[in-house]
Design a protein that fits this description.
By secondary structure, the chain is α+β, with helices and mostly antiparallel strands. The protein has helices spanning 18-21, 37-44, 86-103, 110-120, 122-127, 141-153; strands spanning 7-10, 31-34, 53-59, 62-69, 72-78.
Length: 154
């Protein structure tokens, strides 16, 4: 499956669940936009409720947009006009991918960690299914402070 304008990373919900991790109180900067199922079906040919939700974050000179299916993370960058020239656009798209990998710590195999923790902790073993796909975000420390202060006054 493909989404027009999006790039993709093969990634299961067990490795990262945007619906859970972006709403669990670690970050307050993500906007959540819900699309009608019919719009998603027209662009993908599939009727997947996961794809009806888009998460957006302003990051420096771009807006990062994420969608997710059970086995894929879809992402794109939206840049203000004037658009970067093609050579710079390729570089900026590569920066977006690196930022995503770092921010969500995608180099860590979460399923493997959960298995190890469950073997060593019977309490975690009983409750691990409640936490599927939750990762600790690697945020800029300033983002943590500003997010907290902003959310306290809104």
């Amino acid at each position: 499956m493909t989404l027009v304008g999006f790039k993709s990373i093969p990634l299961s919900l067990a490795q990262l669940s945007l619906a859970v991790v972006l709403k669990c109180g670690q970050s307050f900067r993500w906007s959540i936009i819900k699309s009608p199922t019919t719009e998603v079906q027209q662009t993908t040919g599939a009727e997947d409720s996961h794809l009806c939700v888009e998460y957006r974050l302003c990051l420096k000179d771009r807006v990062i947009c994420l969608r997710q299916s059970p086995d894929t993370l879809f992402y794109r960058s939206v840049f203000p006009d004037p658009q970067p020239p093609p050579a710079k656009l390729v570089l900026r798209e590569a920066e977006t991918l690196e930022w995503l990998k770092d921010y969500f710590q995608l180099n860590i195999d979460l399923v493997s960690l959960y298995k190890q923790w469950a073997e060593k902790d019977e309490v975690f073993a009983r409750f691990q299914n409640r936490f599927v796909g939750i990762r600790i975000l690697r945020q800029d420390p300033w983002e943590n402070v500003v997010s907290y202060v902003t959310s306290a006054f809104c």
